[in-house]
Amino acid sequence: MKKDLFTLTFLSVLLIATGCRQVEEKTQYIPAAPQMEARIDRSEPVKIVDVEQAAQNPAPLKLSQIASEIEYYTVGDARFTVTQAIELPDSNAFITFNNPRIYYRKQGVPSKRYGFKALAYKWNNEMNGQNMFYDKKTTRMYVALSGKTQETRRSGTDSIPCIGILPPLDTMLTILSYIFPESPIEKYPLGRRDDKLLGFSSTGYTLCNRSEETGEPDGITTFNLQGDTLCIFRLKEGKLAPRTLTDNIPFFHTSYWNTAQDRMTFLMPYCDTVYQLRDPQTVAPLYAIRLGEQGLDLKKMVAEAKIPQGKMWLRTFYENPKGLFMGLYQKGGRKILTWTGWEYDYKPTLTHQAVYLKEEGRTVMLPADKDRGFVNDLDNGLPFWPDGQTDDCLYMLRTVTEMRELVKRTGSPKQKKLIELLDNPKVHERDYVMIVVR
Question: Residue 19: is it exposed, middle or buried by C-beta count within 10 angstroms (0-12/13-18/19+)?
Fold first, then answer.
């Protein structure tokens, strides 16, 4: 009996030890061959977004044309600016990624540090600060990590990026000891080292494929979390410009997940089509963005070995039920700057703002005046232009100093929340505010 008890105890300890080791040994996983055949869903016609025509007659738009509510959240100071925000369901709260920190934000409640700590180099910086996915069913957070250690960072040796899975939200907000990337949490390595991470969710991740000849992205590949290759999509054909000509244009301008539908929308460089990944083997073209003569011509770029003056491309792309919001950059164009005349250091520099109004089916270019963005007729606050989105919410980031300097006090009751924020002595000049519209 004692012998059996000793054996049982030994096996239990061995199981715990090997269970922890299996978490680490997932970095040894070798991805399988593609399991599915790619499908392009063309059941609905692609909507034309004519930016070229809209540019001929710029016109202002009111914020009430694309939203009906506006809220303000203080989200930290300039040392750690928000690069991603996630709306939490039914709680009037957000999780913000103030790279490299995570916070829980709720109206009327002091901000709380999320129970996961990682230094800046521990995060996967290919994601442009979009390093989190929140599963609303399980309330667990999925994070994109670089896989780097102090040793690999110093030596310059390759590290394998991974996706880590954190405990449920309630645990992470009440935890007494922080979790770190080195902690024995679930970790899943990316299937291929050379391809860039485009997006991920609780069901898998997507990498961009790159042309072997030029290094430019020409499609995507989907994987489950275990690293199995699910499907390869070839989305661009024909000649591509060498990557050496286009280093200032990101591989993917933007991508975002609709967590309710578990679908990812994305846009590739030099491609006028906005796609939606509907499941691991199905992609649907949604919008065709028409830039006309000002769009990039790959053949001319190769011949001239540079991007010509006046050419335009997308830098940001956001969406809500009312519209599409396109941030454009034109080489040699007039830049959209801060109120002090400097470029924003936490987001891409833009020169133009275009909007596609879904209900009307028309595209509008906003005027290139000093007050860039939608005219804020909801509370007469700052003009609004999205710096990010989370599901159907759009948000803009501005400093308290800028708001106190530029907001015009009208005495209107609809400015009540805004004025309370600006006059709050606990809100400091160095703080940032996240302005959310729905």
Answer: exposed
Q: Which two tokens stand for residue 178?
A: 């922080």
**Token pair in block for residue 429:** 């000049």
Q: What is the pTM of this model?
A: 0.88
Q: Let me know how long the chain is.
A: 438
Smallest CA-to-CA distance from 78 within 400, 311, 342, 339 is with: 400
Q: Do residues 376 and 414 make contact, with C-beta atoms less than 8 angstroms apart?
A: no
Q: Is residue 417 a contact partner of residue 428, using CB atoms and an 8 Å limit?
A: no
What would the pLDDT profile of 24-35 be if each residue is shown by its tens digit? 334 444 556 788
How far is Cα of residue 319 from the mean position of the Cα atoms in its chain? 12
pLDDT tens-place string over residues 373-389: 999 999 999 999 999 99
Instruction: Report the pLDDT value the prediction gives residue 2, as an integer from 0 to 100.
Output: 39
Distances (CA, A) of 56 to 287, 362, 366, 369: 21, 14, 11, 15
Comparing 258 with 134, which gets the higher pLDDT? 134
Residue 18 has pLDDT above 50, yes or no: no
HEC secondary structure over the chain: CHHHHHHHHHHHHHHHHHHHHHHHHHHHCCCCCCCCCCEECCCCCCEEEEHHHHCCCCCCCEHHHCCCCEEEEEEEECCCCEEEEEEECCCCEEEEEECCEEEEEECCEEEEECCECCCHHHECHHHCCCCEEEECCCCEEEEEECCCCHHHHHHCCCCCCEEEEEEEHHHHHHCCCCECCCCCCEEEECCCCCCCEEEECCCEEEEEEECCCCCCEEEEEEEECCCCEEEEEECCCCCCCCHHHCCCCCCCCEEEEECCCCEEEEECCCCCEEEEEEECCEEEEEEEEECHHHCCCHHHHHHHCCCCCCCEEEEEEEEECCEEEEEEEECCCCCCCCCCCCCCCCCCCCCEEEEEECCCCEEEECCCCCCCCEECCCCCCCCECCCEEECCEEEEEEEHHHHHHHCCCCCCHHHHHHHHHHCCCCCCCCEEEEEEEC
- The answer to whether 354 touches 326, Cβ cutoff 8 Å, is yes
Q: How far apart are CA 266 and CA 264, in angstroms?
A: 7
CA atoms of 145 and 189, how far apart (whole Å):
9
Return the residue matching tokens 């040392």. Answer: 79
Burial 33-49 (b: 16+ CB within 10 A, else e): ebeeebeeeeeeeebeb
d(C-alpha 253, C-alpha 313), whole Å: 9
The number of angstroms, rounded, from the C-alpha of 418 to the middle of its chain's C-alpha atoms is 27
